[in-house]
Amino acid sequence: MRQVAFGKWKRSKPEKETKVERLHEGFKTWNAKMKLQYDNISKENEPPAKRMTRAREQNKAKRKANLPQGSRLVDLETRTDGLKECSFCHYGPLSLGNVIEEQHSGLASTFTVICSQCNAENTIKTSKEHRSGARGPLTFDVNTRAALGCLHTGVGNTHLNNLLSILTVPALNSSTFKNQEREAGKAIGLEAKSSCQQFRNLEREEAIENDITAAITEQQQEQYENAVPKYTSRPTVQKETFDDSKFYHFVLFDIETNSTGKSAEGCQLAAMDRASIDSASTRSTKPVCTILAGHNAATFDILILLRNGGENFIAELSSISSIRFADTLTLMKSLIKSKHSSIQNAEGKFPKPGQSSVYEHLFQATFDAHDALEDVIALRRILLSPRLALSDEMLVNRSSVISVKDAAEDLKYLDNRHHRLLSFRGKLYNPGHADSPIKQSIAEKNCWQ
């Protein structure tokens, strides 16, 4: 077939060939449009960046609010190990710019650092730790070193904190300082004892080599030895346990004095049975063990009673083998420490172990404290309280029951230690003076234990 096109004859194409050409033209048009779209894309037309999650927004706010200020004492090795990598995803190193929280433990700090990779919280410490004693809690080295440095330089907690405030380092509170001072004091005492023993051995060897003893008579040597007080350790007190073959008769007592200290004299004495012995003894054929119990008796009432009674009173009391002493303060401390439910109030709180605090906690009332009779009546009401339901076994096992003989030996030791301590007054320690070479407590613990 022929057709006229613009005055000329033109041959028509087959229908199949026309469809192929149209298909090719369509592909070309589509490629051109896609290329144009790709070339025209700008940064303004790019899809928005991934939105910050709520957790990241919160972490960012925390970092801004809790960013540490000032200076810190940092152990470089501990800090490097802590920031080496994340404890969860092992991404590292971590950045101190991601700190969200800081906890102070004296001069040491514990930072909570967010991992920028997995958002996990890592704990970073600024100081190494050691265990205080064989089974004591973990303690930061920097706190112990600070207390040891204060002992060496002769300054106290206030002087140390004045220096730290100028350096913009967080202060060391008095409680932490005292704990570290005790720990360092024990170590110094042990080291001093070992050093003294070492030099004593060296002096002995030199004396033997140089035959120094030949120039000293036996009488002179005996005088020198007698001039130095002999070392005496505190007597071991044997605490008794409950014996079902005995009947326990508790006598509650309290003593009030006219003053404090070793020279105090008793001005009030009150005693009362915890329960009637007549009715109980008729129902039991067991041997009777009488226990004289008082609140805080171990450190006050027993000592006052024996000291004011004198040697004859102690000897007569010791001859009665069935008499014992007990301290109910130890009982209350034991109940509170073990979180005994009977002494817990509705809010889950426990009282202090003092008699007035326990009485008010149990009965929501007060009594006239520091009056011997009122104290005994209050103590009797506490021990007979149905709420506590204290059995004889619990009273005996938790009240530090000791014999009269042990109490008298402990009193003798304490009085002798006090007299020795007075002989060093104004020399080794000055009561009430900050410039004292050593404190009275250190002298008592390290010199005459």
UniProtKB/TrEMBL annotation:
It comes from the Eukaryota. The keyword Metal-binding applies. Residues 70-206 form the Mutator-like transposase domain. Keywords: Exonuclease, Hydrolase, Magnesium, Metal-binding, Nuclease. Signal peptide: none annotated. Its cofactor is Mg(2+). One of its GO terms (cellular component) is cytoplasm. Residues 42-60 have a biased composition (Basic and acidic residues). One of its GO terms (biological process) is DNA catabolic process. Residues 42-68 are annotated as: Disordered. The keyword Coiled coil does not apply. Pfam families: Mutator. SUPFAM superfamilies: Ribonuclease H-like. GO terms for molecular function: 3'-5'-DNA exonuclease activity; metal ion binding; nucleic acid binding. This is Mutator-like transposase domain-containing protein.
